[in-house]
Design goal:
The complex is a heterodimer of chains A (341) and B (230). Helices cover 44% and strands 13% of the residues of chain A. Chain A is an alpha/beta fold. Chain B is of the alpha/beta class and 230 residues long. Classes of the chains: A alpha/beta (341), B alpha/beta (230).
């Protein structure tokens, strides 16, 4: 929209045309009551000098920001969802400057890729490269393609289009809201249309994943660790627009990890999972082994490993059963061997 | 030399972000220095020294820190130019959340953190609203949803800024920030003649001049009263 057009229209007709503008006025603390029939320059001219100084109002800057905001929102609302079907990693170098030994790694929608390697080996840099859609311009010189093409710059700078959403063990909820209000806030910032449906779907899914159920009016800060993780995963799966979800470990308590991954995949996400846990590592379709800052190996999970995975899962269940027993005050007398074999 | 002004509320992670970003800038061969402005006390100059970064420290003491900043920034710039630094980063805390000592034609970075609360973007004045780059820190300890909501609120109050997420502990994101800082066309030799992006509040009342007694009869000059009716 041209600036001349922007400054000649009444605020009421701007709001009519672009309802999202009310958020702009609200977040900038600009009261519109009784002033909607003014144009923007008339509106700002009504502030007296004291108000302008007190509240640091810069009319010219605000008008150009309104123009910018309208353009961004139109772009955001108007475009068809950019579907990211593949993300491709082209090799760079490790910390010693040696070239990474793989042709290219293509990751598809609906795939789980585990990332393994010692702490400090370069997992974060790999993720950083993906998030920043590196174009040989990061310390590793890796190149990232989206849908087999050189990616749009918006992945770097737009606040609404981020390639990677993150879930990690040490994340907390810090807001003083109920579960419902919290998810609602997120839904509003994403401008979803059928808000109520989306919110109840997220809360239901989260309850599916969590060991203990919780209600929509539970304060988020009083959720247990497992419930928090369940809500974070369900919320990210359904509301986050990022096509890639990075998971930094999921603790094996109070949450059904397998179903959590399934939920993410059912929402057509690409899941990257940095983990030291053998069960999670083997749940991946592939695993990337990181060493000395570089991708050292890419391994497809073998059939044999999948069989071993089910045995490991059985062992895991056995361990969890002991955990439950100890928690409920029982005394353990013998190892249940049949579960291990 | 490029001057870059970094400001943000206390404890938002400015120093960590700057330290990590300088690591990347140094690797590219830039000579970088820091001017640290604070009010009563700071130890951050030692952190910079430890990292081998030339640093000047200024404490505003009894003066408004932003006024103090503007009164000294030209001297700081001269120091940087004389020492042939490629980049001089000034770091200052915005204490009342209103001002921003940002200068027209000089890159301005605002650092705020996810823990400061969802309504914070609304509360911060030109420091956030007129920055060119907004760095959001402490994203590693809040949920994805809170990060997204917070970033979208920042975007609403400053749609033109580039929004970056940086983890001050690991430095994740600081390499990316380093690529946005240096701009050859923004090289300066002096700040003389440059202007602030936004005027600072003009407060000159009896308390500015050392009055300590409370009560209307002691108040003179630029005094304003709260509305107490209803």
């Amino acid at each position: 929209m041209k600036k001349t057009e922007l400054i000649s229209k009444k605020i009421s007709s701007l709001l009519n045309e672009f309802p999202f503008l009310s958020a702009f006025f609200n977040d900038n603390g600009l009261e519109l009551k009784g002033k909607k029939e003014l144009t923007l320059p008339e509106y700002f001219a009504e502030f007296d000098e004291d108000e302008i100084e007190d509240r640091a109002i810069d009319a010219e800057n605000l008008i150009s920001q309104i123009g910018e905001f309208i353009e961004q929102m139109i772009a955001f609302l108007g475009k068809d969802e950019d579907i990211v079907k593949t993300v491709t990693i082209l090799p760079g170098t490790d910390k010693s400057g040696d070239k990474e030994d793989f042709g290219k790694l293509e990751i598809h929608q609906g795939e789980i890729i585990s990332i393994v390697g010692p702490t400090g080996s370069g997992k974060s840099r790999l993720l950083g490269d993906i998030e920043w859609v590196a174009q040989s311009d990061t310390p590793t010189s890796r190149k990232i393609l989206v849908n087999n093409d050189i990616p749009d710059n918006k992945w770097r700078f737009s606040s609404s289009d981020k390639l990677v959403a993150q879930l990690s063990q040490n994340m907390n909820f810090v807001m003083d809201l109920s579960v419902f209000e919290f998810v609602e806030l997120h839904a509003e910032s994403r401008l979803v249309e059928n808000k109520e449906d989306v919110i109840s779907r997220i809360i239901n899914k989260a309850n599916d994943l969590a060991g203990e159920k919780f209600s929509p009016d539970t304060p988020i800060t009083s959720l247990s660790g497992g419930q928090s993780r369940a809500l974070m995963i369900a919320d990210t799966a359904i509301l986050s627009k990022s096509p890639i979800i990075l998971i930094d470990e999921i603790e094996n308590a109070g949450i059904d990890r397998k179903r959590a991954l399934k939920l993410l995949l059912s929402e057509d996400k690409i899941v990257l999972m940095a983990t030291h846990d053998p069960i999670l590592a083997l749940m991946g379709d592939k695993r990337i082994v990181i060493k000395n800052g570089g991708i050292y190996k890419i391994i497809d999970t073998t059939e044999e490993e999948r069989t071993i995975l089910s045995t490991l899962e059985e062992m895991d269940k056995t361990l969890l059963a002991y955990r439950t027993k100890l928690r409920s005050g029982e005394i353990i007398t013998e190892i249940q061997k049949e579960n291990i074999n | 030399m490029n001057l870059i002004t970094v400001s943000g509320p206390p404890s938002s992670g400015k120093t960590s972000v700057i330290l990590k970003t300088i690591e990347s800038l140094k690797k590219k061969g830039f000579k970088v220095a820091v001017a640290k402005f604070d009010c009563l006390y700071t130890d951050d100059d030692k952190l910079y020294e430890k990292a081998g970064i030339p640093v000047k420290k200024g404490l505003s003491g009894a003066l408004c820190p932003d006024h103090y900043f503007v009164s000294n920034v030209e001297e700081i710039t001269k120091w940087g130019v004389d020492n042939k630094f490629d980049i001089l980063i000034s770091e200052s805390a915005g204490l009342c959340n209103r001002c921003s000592p940002y200068i027209k034609g000089i890159k301005a970075v605002c650092v705020i953190d996810n823990l400061s609360g969802i309504n914070t973007p609304k509360k911060i004045g030109p420091m956030l609203k007129s920055a060119d780059i907004v760095v959001i820190t402490k994203g590693d300890i809040v949920s994805q949803a809170e990060r997204e909501v917070f970033a979208s609120r920042v975007n609403t109050v400053n749609p033109a800024a580039a929004i970056m997420h940086i983890n001050g502990l690991t430095g994740q994101g600081s390499f990316e920030l380093s690529t946005l800082l240096y701009d050859e066309s923004l090289n300066i030799e002096t700040l003389k003649g440059k202007e602030l992006r936004f005027p600072m509040p003009s407060a000159l009342c009896s308390y500015c001049l050392g009055e300590t007694r409370i009560g209307e009869s002691y108040q003179m000059g630029n005094v304003r009263k709260m509305k107490m009716e209803d």
